[in-house]
Amino acid sequence: LPAKLINGGIAGLIGVSCVFPIDLAKTRLQNQQNGSRLYTSMSDCLIKTIRSEGYFGMYRGSAVNLTLVTPEKAIKLAANDFFRQYLSKDGQKLTLVKEMLAGCGAGTCQVIVTTPMEMLKIQLQDAGRIEAQRKLMPETVVPGTVPTKSPTAMQLTRELLQEKGIAGLYKGLGATLLRDVPFSIIYFPLFANLNTLGKRGAEGPAPFYVSFLAGCLAGSTAAVAVNPVDVIKTRIQSMNRGSTEETYSGVTDCIR
């Protein structure tokens, strides 16, 4: 177990460091509404972010992710291994249904850390878009709802705990489950089966490039499948700071 937790933590840190700018662009694109669109594409979003906030503006909110991604990925990967071992009989190969059940268990366990991490990360990532919107499209901003100064992660945490208690950090829990459980159900079995195809012999591990390509294909497939729910989760978890009204009452309201 310690080795699995360490491996998961290291993998999570490397993954966040590599793709965080793309994740920031995703959040800002997902939060755009009709009539207040600042960005036309991922590349347009990243270029405008660098121009207005500098290179490190693309890593806004990364401290939260780098802090919490280690326990998140460690729980996710260790839970998947645990459920796979639990569901296997005498070391026999798991059926596809059991592989999906193991992924389901992993996705369910990880939301304990994922939900508050995403809640804080989204506020910090979207702050730059809101600032740019206030400067370039002031007619789309409701007076009094947009803070003039970007909050820090600690300020957001204190604000959420004071106003709503621990439930404030777990806003969007249902949407997070609807995203992460199907993602893990698709990702883990698909990765395991693709990785097995590249193994050298029955017992030998697959070469690194095979595992890398299997991860890319499995991750891309799962991400595309759950993207609509990810949009819903992002919009639900985006705080309407300065206003007492919630933008959406729940998942079905956001979908509508």
Defining traits:
256 residues; mainly alpha; 72% helix; globular; L-glutamate transmembrane transporter activity; symport; transport; MCP_dom_sf
Can you describe this structure?
The N and C termini lie far apart (43 Å). The model has no long low-confidence stretch (mean pLDDT 86). By secondary structure, this protein is mostly helical. Helix content is 72%, strand content 0%. It is a multi-pass membrane protein. InterPro entries: MCP (IPR002067), MCP_dom_sf (IPR023395), MCP_transmembrane (IPR018108), Mito_Solute_Carrier (IPR051028). It catalyses: L-glutamate(in) + H(+)(in) = L-glutamate(out) + H(+)(out).
Short summary of the structure?
The chain is an all-alpha fold and 256 residues long. It is built from 9 helices and no strands. Helix 1 crosses helix 2 (42-53), helix 1 packs across helix 3 (62-87) and helix 7 (173-197) packs antiparallel against helix 8.
Count all strands and give the number: 0
Which word captures the global form?
Answer: globular
Strand percentage: under 5%
Instruction: Quote the average pLDDT.
Output: 86
Helix content: over 70%
- How would a crystallographer describe the biggest sheet? none
SSE succession: HHHHHHHHH
Task: Briefly note the structural class of the backbone.
Answer: mainly alpha
Which value, in Å, is the CA radius of gyration? 20 Å
Membrane topology: Multi-pass membrane protein
GO biological process, one term: malate-aspartate shuttle
Organism: Salvelinus namaycush
Catalytic activity: L-glutamate(in) + H(+)(in) = L-glutamate(out) + H(+)(out)
